[in-house]
């Protein structure tokens, strides 16, 4: 095996397929590899169906039989734009199947991609239980020549530990382990798969790196940088990326708090500072705080790793604290408008951590609404896609399925997710059915001048 030098090399200007392309034209048994994807969640389903569209023969495995039975009938258990069509089309084309039998599914596959969850454990470090269970099975099943690809976000050092585990256990083989971290954004995941900003492939075998590059290249139609690194660098790239994004949002939220106090419009400031390419426009939008399935847990792992090594890092901790403060800041904005929260009726639009997803994991809506409820508010909420988790995460809210119902008798409206549908609501009508015309637009998606014309007391963020 040839060792890579660990330097990030932009080795290829590659081309990624457009999902609109005719899959038949792109695929074919002679071009594709046999691939197994383990974990049929957000990342696994997109990855498996995307690779199938590239022309590979893909089996996607999960141990959740209910989930598998839905997927096998072409239904997606969560909301993700374009995914259902993609899955259905690849299943009917015979390139994608869903399976529960992991051992059978791994047999004869060139590459086995792991996309299982790596949530935070109680201590904040990444919980690798699901990954370890699978590694134990795979060590008895995989053969030399097969490549294990870790797409899940894993702590620095995980791939090396897996390699050692394989050489000491099961078939005792020297396996090629590649890190291929995922950067897709929920709500835009299918588009991101076909049009990534970059692909990171980390490993110490040039042959395995080449094979995984080929798996991507096969469907390409436009240049995309592929960064090849060693395993640890690829693992760190994923964490560094998410911690930086959280920092950027944290900064603009703090800027917004300061701007609020001095009467400066944060959006104007953000537009001007973002024009500097060293800063950039993206992720400079103030809001209720960051959340979701990745940023919070990846920040915690980053902090935990530094602590375990005795490295003092100040920024990640501050970013976390600033975010907790932002949730409180939104609560206080409601309180400032309403006066007494106890007994107030708050109409909430949006529960998911961002628009175009049904995912509630670590959504800012959860701490903000829990605080309102703890202080005696009655919360009536609408979200077009939030999944069944609402009941367990926010048992004391009333969920309605008509956005106008949230406004009936409300003392304040609170927008927590940037669903574009909310801009199209009849805000004049909403004002008429509210008890008091107060609104906190925690996503800055409405036009304040219009709301003020309808008689609202409007508070945005920044
Ligand atoms: P998820 O919880 O949606 O999916 C994980 C799937 O793995 C589930 O369907 C679960 O049933 C399955 N699973 C667990 N144990 C299994 C086992 N023993 N055998 C077979 N299947 C098993 O998680 P996700 O959001 O898809 O994230 C997966 C990984 O990708 C995580 O490490 C995450 O940090 C990373 N990631 C996620 C996103 C995102 O936007 N969701 C983006 C980039 C990276």
Mean pLDDT: 93
How many angstroms does the end-to-end distance come to? 55 Å
The proportion of strand residues reads: 5-15%
Main β sheet profile: 6 strands, parallel
The poorly predicted ranges are 1-30
Number of domains: 2
Question: How do the strands line up in the largest sheet?
Answer: 4-3-2-5-6-7
The CATH architecture of the largest domain is: 3-Layer(aba) Sandwich
CATH H level, superfamily name of the largest domain: NAD(P)-binding Rossmann-like Domain
Q: Indicate the CATH topology of the largest domain.
A: Rossmann fold
Which class of secondary structure composition applies to the elements?
Answer: alpha/beta
What small molecules accompany the polymer chains? nicotinamide-adenine-dinucleotide
Separate helix tally? 17
Indicate the percent of residues in helices.
40-55%
Number of strands: 15
The CATH class of the largest domain, by name, is Alpha Beta
Radius of gyration: 24 Å
Short description:
This protein is an alpha/beta fold and 462 residues long.
